[in-house]
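Final report, closing paragraph on structural work. Over the funding period we assembled a curated collection of sequence-structure pairs, and we close with a single example.
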Amino acid sequence: MTNNNELSPDLFRVMDANLNRLREGIRVVEDILRYKENNKQLASKLKELRHKAQIPNIKEFLAYRDSVNDVLKSSTKNELKRQSLEDIIVANLKRAQESSRVLEELYKLIDIKASENFKTIRYELYTLEKEILLC
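Its predicted structure, as stored:
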């Protein structure tokens, strides 16, 4: 495994993929609430949250990105089927929550402050999920 402050290229790939997944999932829901629902309040909260999901060393992550050889880049049947906008919202909120958890855990190896940031994002997503789906 890795030493405390040292990540392997494969772990940078995991973090890069999850950061992309986190921001993309938030953006999908943000745009639905902004353009379809005209809900400025919730869309703004999501935008703020998406902007919290930044990393200062993006070039370090990009150096290890290998999307061409990603063994699971093909969509599953479940990912290709959505019945409603609510299905899209739920899927993307779950995607963002799961990704923030992965980032929270991996950042514990290198930057506890960043880890706590991703934990905060995850809990804010849980709160927003309830607010969005029960409004």
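Residues 9-36 form the longest helix (28 residues). The chain has one domain: 9-133. We thank the funder for supporting this effort.
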